[in-house]
Amino acid sequence: MIKKCLFPAAGYGTRFLPATKAMPKEVMPIVNKPLIQYGVEEALDAGMDNIGIVTGRGKRALEDHFDVSYELEHQINGTPKEAYLADIRRLMEECTFSYTRQKEMKGLGHAILTGETLIGREPFGVILADDLCDGEDDGVMTQMARIYAKYRCSVVAIEEVPMEQIHKYGVIAGSEIEDGLYMISDMVEKPEPEEAPSNHAIIGRYILTPDIFDILRETPPGLNGEIQITDALLTQAKRNMVLAYRFKGRRFDCGSMEGFVEATNHYYQQLKEKG
Predict the structure, then answer these.
(1) Disulfide: which of 25, 110, 113, 210 matches 216 by Cβ 3.0-4.6 Å?
(2) Distances (CA, A) of 129 to 84, 150, 235
(3) pLDDT by residue (tens digit) across 174-195?
(4) pTM higher than 0.85
(5) Which tens digit of pLDDT belongs to each residue from 209-233?
(6) How many CA atoms lie within 13 A of 67 on its CB side?
(7) Is the peptide bond before 123 cis (omega within 30 degrees of 0)?
(8) What does DSSP assign to residue 16?
(9) Phi and psi (nearest 5°) for 107?
(10) 48: region left, alpha or beta (phi > 0 left; psi from -120 to 50 alpha)
């Protein structure tokens, strides 16, 4: 069982300015719960109770959220409002949280490499909180953990996206070995539609084997001068095997205004139906 999950959370969230000027985008709420809490719940449901978070300047609210607030808890102790803290208390009791800082923004690959000190030499999950996923029966990370248990190699989550949006994503090419599961032969970061090898876009869920850290160290900067995780994964695919999994469920791109509103409406409806 994979026990560790890494959350790269050092970005500035510029698409949500001015809201993110003083508040990390990862704590922006979808209804009544911060984005990152949904991700941590997904990780814990997959058995990953050792949570590593790569932060940056101005991100103290992330650490505070997963910690005790004595004044608040004293004020609501014994009142009906105490029930509102049940979910976060569960995470605090069942998970261990560790933090490290990414000193400069040099791409997702660099953020994951920064997290090596929290992970060590074992396989681990990666969740990008911006990509909020609602699995059909099981969470996306639970689905991917089952694939890792069978094949013991890195796994990335993919979904089919319209070609006019393909330039926003890393894109894979590969051969289907099971229904919805592909062995990767090529990966391209943010291609133009005419250059894209498929419409299978990588989204913010990964399971990575620890050799990815050594590969990232030798990966030169790619698009926009950043260290791209897709470049490292392509190297890994050529040396061994990397799988792409078309997950079951729905993804909301909460890094965009439209996706954020869609997710809010979706989870608000769920909350209403629960009563």
Answers:
(1) 113
(2) 21, 26, 25
(3) 898 999 999 999 988 888 888 8
(4) yes
(5) 999 999 999 998 877 788 989 999 9
(6) 10
(7) no
(8) G
(9) 100, 165
(10) beta
> Can you tell me the distance from the alpha carbon of 51 to that of 70, in angstroms, rounded to the nearest whole number?
23
Q: Between 229-239 and 211-218, two packed helices, what is the crossing angle to 10 degrees?
A: 120
Question: How would you classify the pairing of strands 170-178 and 131-135?
Answer: unpaired
Question: Mind listing the pLDDT tens digit for each residue in 71-108?
Answer: 888 888 888 888 888 899 999 999 999 999 998 888 89
In whole angstroms, what is the distance from residue 20 CA to residue 176 CA? 41
Q: CA neighbours within 13 Å on the CB side: how many for 91?
A: 21
* C-alpha distances out from residue 259 to 30, 147, 194, Å: 11, 28, 25
Q: What residues contact residue 136 under an 8 Å CB cut-off, 6+ apart?
A: 248, 249
Distance CA(103)–CA(110), nearest Å, equals 10
Helix (H, G, I), strand (E, B) or coil at 88: helix
Q: Are strands 96-101 and 50-55 parallel, antiparallel or unpaired?
A: parallel
Q: Report which of 204, 268, 273, 250 is spatially closest to residue 29, judged by C-alpha positions.
A: 268
Q: What domains can you pick out in the chain, each with its CATH number?
A: 4-274 (3.90.550.10)
